[in-house]
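User: My instructor asked us to take a sequence, write out its structure as tokens, and then describe one feature of it. I'm not sure where to start. Here is the sequence I was given:
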Amino acid sequence: MLKRILTALWGIPLILWIVHVGDQLFFIFVVLVACLGLYEFYSLLEKNNYKTLKTEGIVAGFLYLTFLYLESRWALRIFLPLLIVSILIYELLKKEHSVIEISLTFLGFFYIPFLSGYFLLLRNLPQGEILTYYTFLVTWASDSAAYFIGKFFGKHKLAPSISPNKTIEGTVAGIIGSIIVSLAFGAIYYEKYLLPIILGISLGIMGQLGDLVESMLKREIGVKDSSSLLPGHGGILDRFDSLFFIVPTTYYMLFILRLL
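Assistant: Let's start with the prediction itself. The structure tokens for your sequence are:
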């Protein structure tokens, strides 16, 4: 518990400062998160004798995020399809890897670098700095509420076959935490309440879903944490699993709810 708190005390201010500075520093931060997270993902699969194209996957993730940063308009329309087709043709011609190996490699790419790209897209929006703060704070509030309420008051298991420690009480607390932060931002920056509540509920649910997805992966492999990179928190996947689902949801929900 102490390690968890100490890591948060330096980690949270650092991330908020990086969000404030933005531009190249924020891009470097996103690339590090994505590449380290993808490395953890492939390493976990290898522990269970699943083979992946680790180097190719990480390089593809780096190239995609770089292109997204330099020219976001064409990254999804042109670069991403070309990247996928190029890798597929290359691997099919080499005939050194199975369909399963190639599929797992792409699964990691879309789970981590692709979803991480929405950090860059969100930060680049009008009021992008505030919206990125909002996304991080909603996630942290949701994760913290779910963790502490579930730990001390949770009695009813949510999905014991996937995550033995996750409880219904913790999940509800996580969604409530998301709503509270969302309401606070809505009152301060938009003077609206209904739409931030809808957004808070959506993000709270998606955050819990993201946590369950990573829990399912760790359950399959038989490990507690994705790595020991962050003392008290585990690895990049353990700390950013909710954000990988919350950030794209924030990006699209802002347009759907017309908050921009």
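For the description part of your assignment, you could build on this observation: Residues 2-256 form one domain. Try explaining in your own words what that tells you about the chain.
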